[in-house]
Design a protein that fits this description.
By secondary structure, the protein is mainly beta. It is built from four helices and 16 strands. Strands 6, 7, 8, 9, 10, 11, 12, 13, 14 and 15 form a ten-stranded mixed β-sheet that branches. Strands 1, 2, 3, 4, 5 and 16 form a six-stranded mixed β-sheet that branches. It is globular, with a radius of gyration of 19 Å. The two termini are about 30 Å apart. The N terminus is likely disordered. Keywords: Isomerase. Belongs to the diaminopimelate epimerase family. Pfam families: DAP_epimerase.
């Protein structure tokens, strides 16, 4: 991973439309060191089968299939094929597939991602540091309700902050934030502990709630201290995951807006901690966390 981090330090990046995660940013830099030529188009075997070369990365257990797609502006596989590759029983197993595409507007690369259900999220960010972790400038949070988007009525300037939302007969207080993709952050019901939540039951009800026209990611948060939060996440299009970078960023923004936390926080996720800073001077959110290669190979399509 050290080689990937070092190589990445000189690389500019653009993401069109893309994902949420710090795992993206060393993405291109395993390719030059790989023993297989990942920049080639999927090859045909002697029997005529197409093979796709890939590398698998994870950050805090949030894992992705990474594909060198720099020879084409269109992903090498379809959303349906991506969903099959993400299947943990019958495929490679991942939370999504990331494609490195040709650069535009002076950047070296652009990216797209398909979630494990084949849907395509949005996001942007860039940055690297030299301690084996990736630091990402996630940009400015979007708080205007119509832009998140949410149909909940704005109650603080144009934002939805600590607003009541009824989900399956239970009233939750929620704050809505977009980090390029929509998030609904809740600090729970009174006396609730995030570990006690049945995400598989409650998560889809938030994701598909009528007040979120583009669906939503949902973060369930517990406050340990003004600088230490714990979060579980239900991701739009991927379900319960071990980590979500934009979710951690949205959580800190929401925690500051609701008065629970300071602008610099450690956020504990099931896969491990992330360091999140919502910097006052530029209004950008910065995220620091690990990214590690798992393996590389090829798969028949």
């Amino acid at each position: 991973m050290a080689e990937a981090i070092t190589a990445a330090a000189t690389t500019s990046l653009s993401i069109k439309p893309s994902t949420r995660h710090y795992q993206l940013f060393p993405l291109l830099h395993f390719f030059p060191n790989s023993s297989i030529e990942l920049s080639q188009k999927p090859k045909l075997s002697a029997t005529g089968s197409r093979y796709l070369h890939f590398v698998k990365y994870h950050g805090l257990g949030n894992d992705f299939i990474l594909v060198d797609n720099r020879d084409s502006s269109e992903p090498k596989i379809t959303p349906e094929q991506a969903a099959k590759l993400c299947d943990r029983n019958f495929g490679i197993g991942a939370d999504g597939v990331i494609f490195a595409l040709p650069g535009i507007n002076g950047t070296d690369y652009t990216m797209r991602i398909f979630n494990s259900d084949g849907s395509e999220p949005e996001m942007c960010g860039n940055g690297i540091q030299e301690d084996g972790k990736v630091k990402v400038d996630m940009g400015e949070p979007v708080l205007k309700a119509i832009d998140v988007p949410t149909k909940l009525a704005a109650n603080k300037n144009d934002a939805v902050v600590k607003s009541e939302l009824v989900v399956d007969g239970v009233t939750w207080n929620v704050t809505c934030v977009s980090m390029g993709n929509p998030h609904c952050v809740t600090f729970g019901i009174k006396g609730g502990q995030v570990d006690a939540l049945n995400l598989a039951e409650i998560g889809p009800k938030f994701e598909h709630h009528e007040v979120f026209p583009a669906r939503t990611n949902t973060e369930f948060v517990q406050v340990y201290s003004p600088s230490h939060l714990k979060m579980r996440v239900w991701e739009r299009g991927a379900g319960a995951t071990l980590a979500c970078g934009t979710g951690a960023c949205a959580t800190v923004v929401a925690a500051v807006l609701e008065g629970h936390a300071e602008r610099n926080c450690t956020v504990d996720l099931p896969g491990g901690p992330l360091e999140i800073e919502w910097r006052e001077e530029d209004n950008h959110v910065y995220m620091t966390g690990p990214a590690e290669m798992v393996f590389y190979g090829s798969v028949p399509l």
